[in-house]
Amino acid sequence: MHSSGKTPLIRLAKRDGMAGAGQWGIRIAAILLALVVGGLVILLSGNNPIQGYAIIVEGALGKTSGIRQTVKNFIPLLGTALAIAPCFKMRFWNIGAEGQITAGAMCATYFALFWADSIPQVPLLLLMCAAGAIGGGLWALVPAFFKARWGTNETLFTLMMNYIIIGVVKWLQGGPWEKIPRGSQQIEQFASNACLPRVAGVYCGWIVVLALTVFMFLYMKYTKHGYEIAVIGESENTARYAGMNVGWVIMRTMFLSGAIAGVVGFLLVSGANNTLYSGVAAGAGFTAITVAWLAQLNPFAMVGISALLAVLQKGADTLNTQMGIPASLSDVITGVLLFFMLGCEFFINYKLVFRGAEERHKRKEAAK
């Protein structure tokens, strides 16, 4: 009795492991429960939930124009999730992808604005892509250097750097790069040779991010660099004991992460928007964190999850226009689905243990 008094009524315990069927059972149950809760939100707004979900699917996938917009939403989500995956695998919490996208977009824009008249399309686009990768990589290298050299908190450092680069772009919009006549607080639209070509009705960024998916899978699973990232993620002390230069690996990995995010920035300015503005990343840097975690850092799983979120984004917009549901409620429905999908991963890894059940289990074990 004395020992049971000290035992909490409910406690969390880490699972030893769960079979694949059990994991997918929890995930499917979470999605079904999310759909029920989302349906209640639609019902409370005075609309039919079944009709609402039908409109979401129809709006995202029913027409060619909807599919193209869904693919445009998909590109930055997948690209940014791939960018942050190696950092997260290393347990370096890069919350700065939003800023790294913006830095890459800004560097690519420089060549679009000032070199478009003197360079043909293909070399110009390659130069813009390289500039975006270098800009994003260097922006990510700053917090990586401070972490490697002085052990600073990378979460706060990378988060704060988002606001710095966004502020720089705002200054460019209303200052040196503002289009003529001045006063619009906007940057000039790109010349045609600084814009990415379209493939299947959508700018070719979707080909780039799918190629990056294959690259990141091979890089993280089959290369020495990927092995070093995994070892550091498990234990920095083990990595040092094995002779790895942990600080160098952190900086190298963050440069790669920022470079991929910078390429996403290039894709956005030269493909989706054909100009630069301070909100170019549009939250992709934060939403991609959810994508990466739900995919458990598996690049191929990120493709499916990014596609699902892209469908929800486009479908929610259609829900807003066709059913008159406020955009905020559409965001709530998306948030509910994400909440349940993330929550189910918790229950896959942990279980709730009740005091009485635990004591009965101990008595059974003792009886054996």
UniProtKB/TrEMBL annotation:
<dbReference type="Pfam" id="PF02653">
    <property type="entry name" value="BPD_transp_2"/>
</dbReference>
<keyword id="KW-0472">Membrane</keyword>
<keyword id="KW-1133">Transmembrane helix</keyword>
<feature type="transmembrane region" description="Helical">
    <location>
        <begin position="24"/>
        <end position="44"/>
    </location>
</feature>
<protein>
    <recommendedName>
        <fullName>Branched-chain amino acid ABC transporter, permease protein</fullName>
    </recommendedName>
</protein>
<feature type="transmembrane region" description="Helical">
    <location>
        <begin position="336"/>
        <end position="354"/>
    </location>
</feature>
<feature type="transmembrane region" description="Helical">
    <location>
        <begin position="249"/>
        <end position="269"/>
    </location>
</feature>
<dbReference type="GO" id="GO:0022857">
    <property type="term" value="F:transmembrane transporter activity"/>
</dbReference>
<feature type="transmembrane region" description="Helical">
    <location>
        <begin position="275"/>
        <end position="295"/>
    </location>
</feature>
<dbReference type="InterPro" id="IPR001851">
    <property type="entry name" value="ABC_transp_permease"/>
</dbReference>
<keyword id="KW-1003">Cell membrane</keyword>
<feature type="transmembrane region" description="Helical">
    <location>
        <begin position="99"/>
        <end position="116"/>
    </location>
</feature>
<feature type="transmembrane region" description="Helical">
    <location>
        <begin position="200"/>
        <end position="219"/>
    </location>
</feature>
<keyword id="KW-0812">Transmembrane</keyword>
<dbReference type="GO" id="GO:0005886">
    <property type="term" value="C:plasma membrane"/>
</dbReference>
<feature type="transmembrane region" description="Helical">
    <location>
        <begin position="122"/>
        <end position="142"/>
    </location>
</feature>
